[in-house]
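Deliverable D4.2, example record:
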Amino acid sequence: MARQPTLKQLSYLSALAEHGHFGNAARACHVSQSTLSAAIIELESLLGVALVERSNRRVLLTALGDEVIKRSRSILTDVEDLVATCEASAEPFSGRMRLGVIPTIAPYTLPHLLKQLRRKHPEFQLFIREELSARLVNALHLGELDVLLLALPFAADRVETRHLFHDDFVFACPPDYPLADNAKVHAADLRSHELLLLEDGHCLRDHALEACSLNEVELKIPYQATSLTTIVQMVANGIGVTLLPQMALDARILSGTGVKAHQFKESGVSRSIGLMWRSNSPRREEFSLLGDFIAAS
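Output generated by the structure prediction step:
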């Protein structure tokens, strides 16, 4: 029988296609660059075809390489689902689970959640990856993650979602800002103000604007940041105002800053927090139980 590709070779190839760089792909796979490169060369020799075009700057897939990648990812996902099928037969929260969480949720919910899970299910192994929504969904489809905790809706194919709870947005400003004395603010009051937002790629940005019925062309956006902590410090220094999720306030993100927070007069100025998993996952019942646990925490 002819020798066949290994799952490790296919996973290295998938990582190379995702990152477009041998060094970055090797770091993602937790191996040396020489190990990953040798595995790809061995795979090409085994198949008798060139899968990648190598250059000093980046890696490009050949036309056949694209097809092999698609099939490889399908195989890897099927293998993960096979493992998940066996894990699903065990007692819930007795094995392992890989959870992807977006950065505007992770630091505010995970510490309490992990403490509660460890106390009630000491045998449960929960592995966490914190990334932007698009990258998490890609990892979900590749079989690298089992379930995601993120803000909904987020466009994705072949997935199921479950809403868990609403997270209100609040208006945050310096103590001497014109709106600082208002008990509550109207969303329309924010038009023409210098609103600090997270950079493109963070779904919190889009959900906050949509919840307030605001369009970017109506706003002055002097700066963009990569974290809510940075934005809060910018607000504290009088650079602008912002919208923050209530869960961040509950985690005391404004502590010691002097920044004032105000609720909105309108109802429904919030984002939906929920779970997402592959529609063919055999662990949907366990994910639903995880949702119950998060919602009750």
